[in-house]
Amino acid sequence: MKIRSCVLRQKLTPFILLIASLSAGVSAKAANIVYATGFESNEGYQASNTGVSLTGQTDQLTGAVWERTSGGNHATLVDYLTFAGSGAVRAYGTADSTLKFNSSSTILNHEVMLDSYMMIDGTPGDNGYAEIALLDELGERQAAVQFQESSGKLTLRTGATTIVSDDFSFSYNQYYHIAISVNYSSGQVSVYAKAVERGDKSPLSAGDIVSFNGGETSIGVSSIVGAYAGTIRLLATSGAIGYYDEISVRSIPEPGSGSLLLGMIPIATFLLYRRLGTSR
What we know:
By secondary structure, this protein is α+β, with helices and mostly antiparallel strands. It has one domain: Jelly Rolls (Sandwich), CATH 2.60.120. Helix content is 18%, strand content 36%. It is built from 2 helices and 16 strands. Helix 1 (2-30) packs antiparallel against helix 2. The protein starts with a helix and ends with a helix.
């Protein structure tokens, strides 16, 4: 029986790899990139060592213009301390910038994922923070990630609610890969984060999810059900300095029965493969 199982495993291997690659392709196509930028010169952005105001610069992908919503300073584009490429946003001294990447609910099928590389400089224990956020059409926070100097931990903001992470402490002058998942059907928000070296674009995984409230990895926010995102905001307050680079927004449709079935195929084939390997 063991010999027959080995032969069968050898015959199944190409089939398993094919199915896995096909299903992976389906998953990749399911996510629609709504917006992406690296703040590069070939995208129409201008940066310098002293900083060029981001306010008024036009995003070539969307045709939208970056705006300042607070009464503070302008966020600027600098050509140093970038995560990758030649430009990154630097916000400091209560400075913010916003970009409306979508003005309709057509992107909202199920889930929106905001992805960015982010770094904070400042003074531990102070009251400043650096933030990246998805705003609704009224300019309110639907979901925001903050590096708060007072706690030294990654913090989630939804509306007027502030939730400090259980154990995700951050370091200054260290880039982090951040993703905020907002599910507009269920009203759930999840955050993923990991420290990365500059230029390291390795993807986030399920193991990078951040917990809140003693172990919760999905936070319910009733106010976002049926809503949609349309604006990104980059913000730093007080003495904190935030750096932002390689930002993207993806819309992930709700999986139908066909997608779910395809998603189950690699699992089933793997279990069969393992079972054959342990047969005696």
